[in-house]
Hints:
The structure holds two protein chains of two kinds.
Chain A (H helix, E strand, L loop, with lengths): L3 H6 L17 H27 L2 H4 L1 E3 L8 E3 L5 E3 L5 E2 L1 H11 L3 E4 L5 E3 L4 E3 L2 H8 L8 H5 L3 H9 L21 H11 L2 H8 L14 H14 L9 H10 L11 H15 L14 H6 L1 E9 L5 E8 L1 E5 L1 H16 L4 H11 L2 E2 H8 L2 E4 L5 E2 L5 E2 L2 E9 L3 E7 L1 E3 L4 E3 L4 E2 L3 E3 L5 H9 L19 E13 L2 E10 L2 E6 L2 E5 L1 H5 L3 E8 L16
Parallel strand pairs in A: 10-16, 11-19
Antiparallel strand pairs in A: 1-2, 3-4, 3-5, 5-6, 6-7, 8-9, 8-15, 12-15, 13-14, 16-25, 17-18, 20-21, 21-22, 21-25, 22-23, 23-24
Helix pairs in contact in A: 8-12, 10-11, 14-15
Chain B lengths: L3 H8 L9 H50 L16 H5 L11 E2 L3 E4 L3 E4 L3 H4 L64 H17 L11 H16 L3 H14 L10 E3 L6 E3 L3 H9 L5 H10 L6 H11 L4 H10 L4 H12 L1 H5 L4 H8 L1 H24 L1 H21 L5 H8 L16
Antiparallel strand pairs in B: 1-2, 2-3, 4-5
Helix pairs in contact in B: 5-15, 6-7, 11-17
Amino acid sequence: xxxxxxxxxxxxxxxxxxxxxxxxxxxxxxxxxxxxxxxxxxxxxxxxxxxxxxxxxxxxxxxxxxxxxxxxxxxxxxxxxxxxxxxxxxxxxxxxxxxxxxxxxxxxxxxxxxxxxxxxxxxxxxxxxxxxxxxxxxxxxxxxxxxxxxxxxxxxxxxxxxxxxxxxxxxxxxxxxxxxxxxxxxxxxxxxxxxxxxxxxxxxxxxxxxxxxxxxxxxxxxxxxxxxxxxxxxxxxxxxxxxxxxxxxxxxxxxxxxxxxxxxxxxxxxxxxxxxxxxxxxxxxxxxxxxxxxxxxxxxxxxxxxxxxxxxxxxxxxxxxxxxxxxxxxxxxxxxxxxxxxxxxxxxxxxxxxxxxxxxxxxxxxxxxxxxxxxxxxxxxxxxxxxxxxxxxxxxxxxxxxxxxxxxxxxxxxxxxxxxxxxxxxxxxxxxxxxxxxxxxxxxxxxxxxxxxxxxxxxxxxxxxxxxxxxxxxxxxxxxxxxxxxxxxxxxxxxxxxxxxxxxxxxxxxxxxxxxxxxxxxxxxxxxxxxxxxxx
Amino acid sequence: xxxxxxxxxxxxxxxxxxxxxxxxxxxxxxxxxxxxxxxxxxxxxxxxxxxxxxxxxxxxxxxxxxxxxxxxxxxxxxxxxxxxxxxxxxxxxxxxxxxxxxxxxxxxxxxxxxxxxxxxxxxxxxxxxxxxxxxxxxxxxxxxxxxxxxxxxxxxxxxxxxxxxxxxxxxxxxxxxxxxxxxxxxxxxxxxxxxxxxxxxxxxxxxxxxxxxxxxxxxxxxxxxxxxxxxxxxxxxxxxxxxxxxxxxxxxxxxxxxxxxxxxxxxxxxxxxxxxxxxxxxxxxxxxxxxxxxxxxxxxxxxxxxxxxxxxxxxxxxxxxxxxxxxxxxxxxxxxxxxxxxxxxxxxxxxxxxxxxxxxxxxxxxxxxxxxxxxxxxxxxxxxxxxxxxxxxxxxxxxxxxxxxxxxxxxxxxxxxxxxxxxxxxxxxxxxxxxxxxxx
Lengths: 536, 440
């Protein structure tokens, strides 16, 4: 659980004295590695790969020595994989194995931690931990930065100033007068691991930027202030306000604004300020914003007559998810259940839950098939006649950070209102079911029906995202107040203008979310250079 | 550990994986227990890992200090005073001169060529009150000093790492600063402001021990008062803890009730930060445009397409300034140009402070701006107070300085149009047909 996202999120390697690290996790491991370094490393990598990629049944099946016939037994609880021989044990079995064979190290089956029998404790060896966190995969270029030799870090320390330990980026932004829509979006970006590492690694240098009212410079200013000064009070993001107002006339002025609209603006502004002229219009812009927030949405249109399939790819920056349909659906269901009295008992039990909507239902609906009327589409294959078609959206390319916008609006002829209903959202979200691949699989094997998490999906079948920030709106459609929650390390914080307070997970999950930011749990950095490589 | 596995094993004794119905309830319970066990297992290990890593790093940095002390180095020899060696000394120590001898502490061993290896279990060898920050190498506070789970550290005179455990206390932020009082009437006139400053200075003078950080609430001032007494009386426990609280919270910086003043980068007027947007609207000359914006919102049609809503801006959202100017000039209501014309007709001065300014001002000001911020940061309240007194003069001077620039700007006046229109074509222009906003 402490894996990748935290790697990028951990305290940046800042200019301090070189942090002293131990060379080995414990004395016993030192002697083992001394004797047989290569074998041990290989074996550990293999075991970590097994833990990460293989079916968990394999890990949790062991031969019980107590049983006479020695048949394999599967356990739900963690098992221990011996580092020195190919055996799987329970906790007791592991200790017995130590007594009989004196194999002193074993790998725990849930996270791949190393257990030392001599210490009678888990040990965290710096070398093996990097292997573990990488999931036993091949060495990446990134490691050269991470494990830069002592010389580099000493050089860094000698040429940099000390950053106070307190300066860890947890500060509020003053409300400059109806600017909370800006503060919440900025806070969400400030605590976004990708954006953070970009700016902290001098991705945009204000001193070298010649643009006027540059929001990226203003953002850089905030990052510098938050991560280098020992202050705890809020910060007045005046330059950011000016930059935003100059950049977006629609958002300018002393009035309340929509946070989602501001997010669209600021991401566009940061994109254009951080990319070259040539890249700015290409589909695969390498700028920090595109490589962080942009995915591709595939729209598949199938003609009902000739079954001709046309697909189109659209870049997407966030998913705007409809709640209105969910509300209607729930209402319909309820009405239906009321009519069918036989099912009454079930309805009564369900009634309370029905008022809540889950974000996964919304996404499910978003990527489900939709029948379009004949008037809306002209099939080229059927002699350019208008045909009834089925349209389906799916995520073709997932962005490292997925922003979800909950459309909490209801429009009638006369007025618009806000949908106040609660939307459930998980701390960890599996996006695999909504990808084009999953949708295609589903179409190919219709007997399987809807994607079920019950099937024995291995870890590779899941693409986990972790909640990173939530923007909350309180009030009605015409005005109110925005606050936000962001996670930093293992802690959640609530940002209410200049106030920063600790928040519990329950508080976060119970809030009336408007924007959700999910960050991918694991990220494989390919050999291709790009900003997507976390620079920390 | 439960024995679900055994139950499963029994069930499969006849060769088929069958669970007898009567066992099912018990099995379900065991599965539930196992799943719970797994969750706890993961959580505990996570905490275990972070705690153990902290202790290992502590052991390593203690060893590092020892290494730097025993190495013959001109930089580190003078600083062999107290245990938490200042950061700079160890930082400047080149390891090339690392000693060729084995070193031992209770928690670690150092062997040349191998490095630092922990001795035994760091949970045993490094007591929790010895955990140091890997960055500044000062001891870490283990408990919050206020709010939920608050505990005062044993050693009152020790200097601690400024990274304290987060404070969870109602109406206080994570640093233990109280919230600003609701609706504290902000002084709007300069006279009132000066009066307030005077009062603040008086308060500060009366409690010198509080180091200028009156924690805002009653807590802080009481602590400040007692601190001075505590210093006189010596080791009185209650006053000591109060002094400590003050000392520790002194690290916390300004109380949350503090609302800074900020100089407007355009007109150089000093403003309360909370009133800044209001001022900026006037200063930039964008007031009164709401009506035209509302109109524009009504004109744009309705439709579905959430996807487009988010996707389109990325495609079309980064216009070339020139193009934007063209597009805007030809189509649609351009509120800015209309307004600008109006303003031009009425007052020339107003226009200068308007949007046309930004190129000029941003181009030559940044260096100056930065200086100003720094001054403010360091100077603290005293300087600001004096500044408030001399403010009028400052402003006058600045106006004088400004005049030549105004001339240039007038010359430049034709240009800004493109600037205005570039921004008109921002992200949402084409896309979100449903004008859906939650204002806040």
